[in-house]
Amino acid sequence: MNRREAIKGYFGLLAGSPLLRAQQDLPNSTGLVPGLEELVNVFEFEPICRLRLPRQNYDFIAGGVDNEWSLRHNREAFDRIMFRPRMLVDTSNLDLSLTLFGDKISCPILVAPTAGHGLATPEGELATARAAAAVETIQILSTTSSQPLEKVAAATKFPKWFQLYPGPDLEGTWERVQRAKDSGFKTIVVTVDAGYSSHRERLLRNRVRAQVPSGASTQQARRRREEGEAEAPTRASVYGLNTTLVHKLDWNFFDELKKRAGLPVLIKGILTGEDAELAVKHGADGVVVSNHGARYLEYAPATIEVLPEIVSAVNKKIPVLIDSGFRRGTDVLKALALGATAVCVGRPPLWGLGAFGEAGAKRVLELLRTELALAMGLAGKANLSKIDRSLLRM
Ligand code: FNR
């Protein structure tokens, strides 16, 4: 057996394994890993990503919390919504573009902030930045990027946003905001739903302790580590919990952030109308309806279910973005019809990166954009302003 046959046999064996099939069938049954051009939807990138990455990297990307009920429910919830398509409407000039905080993007699909793209491909977030710029959309760079934020900012000229994890200390947080501003990030997205390390059993089984790879190190954090300074104890530690964000993450923190940022600030992780109303009251420039891809509170609702409540509370005063479970153009169309301004995708670009690097991430975004265009065309909606609730049968 020569080397080529051995490799072919190895991939054949992996592709045929029941474990892999349980997750997602490869799109053909020859046992060969299909090429990028052969994949017809974003789901098909996941098993290839799984084949190509070390187990714990794949599990870090894939995992949800506890029983992964919210993870499954994020997908199931879309199946309860159908369309009421309109006919004999001219959709020959489809336009999916929109302007968000002054920047024009090609479609209402953004790259959600996700940690450590270096786990998926060596160039990490630099590859993602180029992929997002190629489809003319926004990359929201995670605080826990595996590449320095300055390098990612400089990777392309296309506008980018910065996701802020506030913590663990305030000084380090303000330092991070300043670095993002100085590097030219246009908007801050502050994540507020991840105050404690959550119970992700895939990580525990793989003996991965840190839930996020380091990469967001600030001067302050380095100084504290060097001087062996302990973090301030909290009551949470009595219960064996590990706090990850600033100790008092409340609306006062947000007010201070808003004052210092001097950029639009969106709040990510909103799941109720009450919090959406408060976000407007405190001057948030937008909200991201998110259950963090089902990675923090188990039995958090699917975001598409709570979107109407949040859209109604916000009452068109600020943009409402949404993520968690979006895998199809039709999923995106459903959210737009319920009043979302745009949708963010987390795992799909990572599957693309893990399977085929930058080209894979780009293809994933292109596939989603094409699917959305097709769904709009078939539903009689030529552009985003034509999409409203009347398109849906709930
Ligand atoms: C995330 N998410 C996330 N969110 C955030 O604000 N900062 C972060 O660093 C991360 N890191 C991260 C890593 C990985 C591997 C995943 C899967 C998710 C959450 C992310 O922004 C988004 O809310 C979800 O990924 C959306 O769900 P889907 O699209 O992955 O189903």
Short structural summary:
By secondary structure, the protein is α/β, with parallel strands linked by helices.
Question: Can you characterise this structure?
Answer:
The structure is a single chain. With 394 residues, the protein is α/β, with parallel strands linked by helices. It has one domain: Aldolase class I (TIM Barrel, Alpha-Beta Barrel). Helix content is 42%, strand content 11%. The chain has helices at 3-15, 18-23, 45-52, 55-62, 69-76, 125-134, 149-155, 170-182, 201-205, 219-226, 235-238, 251-261, 273-281, 303-314, 329-337, 347-379; strands at 82-83, 98-100, 103-105, 109-111, 139-141, 160-164, 187-191, 265-270, 286-289, 320-322, 342-345, 392-393. The strands form three sheets. An eight-stranded parallel β-sheet has the order 4-11-10-9-8-7-6-5. A two-stranded antiparallel sheet has the order 1-12. The chain has a two-stranded antiparallel ribbon with strand order 2-3. A hairpin with a 2-residue loop joins strand 2 (98-100) and strand 3. Helix 3 (45-52) packs antiparallel against helix 16 (347-379), helix 6 (125-134) packs parallel to helix 16 (347-379) and helix 13 (273-281) packs across helix 14. It is globular. Bound molecules: ligand FNR. Ligand FNR is lined by residues 60-61, 74, 112-115, 142, 144, 163, 191, 268, 290, 292-293, 295, 323-326, 345-347.
